[in-house]
Amino acid sequence: MEKTQTISSIDGFKTQISCLKPKTPRKIFTSYKPILFLFDFGTLLSSFILTVILSKPYLSEHDFSDLTVIFLTLAAIFMSHFQEFDLYSYNANYIWAKHFKNIKKALFWCLGCLSVAVLLLIWADIYFVRFIIPSAVVILSFLLLLKKSDNTKLKNAAFTLSISFMSIGALAIISKEGPLILKSHISFIPIFFAIFSGLAVIGRYFVVSVIFNGWMRKIFRWAIVIIGSNEEAKFVADFIIRNNAPYYVKGVINPHGNSRLDSVVPKNCMGDINQLPDIAAITEIDDIVITEENIEKDILLNVLDYCIKQRLNVWFSPKVLPILDLKLNTRDFGGLPMIRLCTQRNSEMFNKVKHGLDALISLPLLILMLPVYFITAIAIKLNSEGPVFFNPYMIGRHAKIFQMYKFRTMFSDSDNKIHEDYVTKLIRGEIGQKGIDGQKLKITNDPRITSVGRILREFSLDELPQLINVVKGEMSLVGPRPCTTYEFKNYKEWHKKRVSVRPGITGVWQVTGRSEVAFEDMILLDLFYIYNRSILLDLHILYETVFAVLNKKGAY
Question: Which CATH architecture has domain 221-341?
Answer without folding.
Answer: 3-Layer(aba) Sandwich (3.40)
